[in-house]
Every structure is written in C-alpha cells, then in structure tokens.
C-alpha cells in the first residue's frame, strides 16, 4: 500500500522537519541521478529531491537487476522522479571523478529525501517483496467472531541477520540516511 508509505513521509515532513529533512544539496562534482521516467542519467540540479538505494550490489549486469527495477517503481509510486543507485550513478572508470564521488557518499545519503533499504535476499536479483514478488502471507485463523493473526518477526532482527547488513558500506548508509524505508522478506517498515 503505497498510500501508507506516502502518509508516513507526509507525517514526518509535517512533524520532524528540522531533524529528518536535509536542506543542503550534495555539492559533489559530476553528481548524477537516474530519471525513473526516462531511465536515463541526468546531472543533479540543486533542489531536486531524490531517493537513494542501499542494497547488496554486484557488478556486471547487462539488464537492471530486479531490486533496482522494483526501486524504480517504488520511487514513482511515492511521487518522486529521481533515484540514486551507486553502480549506475557513479562513473565506473576508476578515475578521479569516481574517487571523489565515493569519498562523498555520506552527502549522497544524508541529502536524500528517503533511502530505500533492500534488506532481503542474497543479491540484487532477489527483488523487493510485495513490489514484484508475491507477498508473505501472515498466518491467521477466524474462531467465532475473533480473528487471530500470527505475529511477525522483529524487523530489527531480520535486518541484523540480512545479507545487506554484512556489507561494509551499510553502517554509513543506514546511519547517515535521515529516512529509511526498509524492505525485509516479511514486512516493510519506515524509520526517520
């Protein structure tokens, strides 16, 4: 339900403006974003809101991995147009521009309107649950007039045990992002 996530973002914007919204622009030479509508890279224009992706990345894809495809969809569904994905937005030439951008990834995450965290699956081919994959069905039973629903696992524990958490960059991405929409295999939750 993207309307629920939009409501979370609106609530945060109205009530946490000083602590959860970054008003600074990532002043990084060569900084570019993926336009989710055209699927082309564009130079960053100051003031443009964007979503960042934090995921288990592998190099060498000839097509977009499903996690990125799903994140493009989520970005548009949430009313945003631009997405930052390291493996596409940072030039992969091993030159000075790449080095400068990697050195400033703290700004990328700190200035993002939202960071989508793919804390599920073993790699970027896994996808985001409930976007392109069928959703996890929470067990339930109706007894008379009562609906009894099983409790989901603690999402903090799910994230802690995820492949995503094993990455070296994870600490920086999670710590510096002011808002996080975290996809685990069983649920989605929002932190700000």
TrEMBL record:
Taxonomy, superkingdom: Eukaryota
Pfam families noted in UniProt: HET
Domain Heterokaryon incompatibility: 60-173
PANTHER family for this protein: DOMAIN PROTEIN, PUTATIVE-RELATED (PTHR33112), HETEROKARYON INCOMPATIBILITY DOMAIN-CONTAINING PROTEIN (PTHR33112:SF1)
Protein name: HET-domain-containing protein
Phylogenetic classification of the source organism: Eukaryota, Fungi, Dikarya, Ascomycota, Pezizomycotina
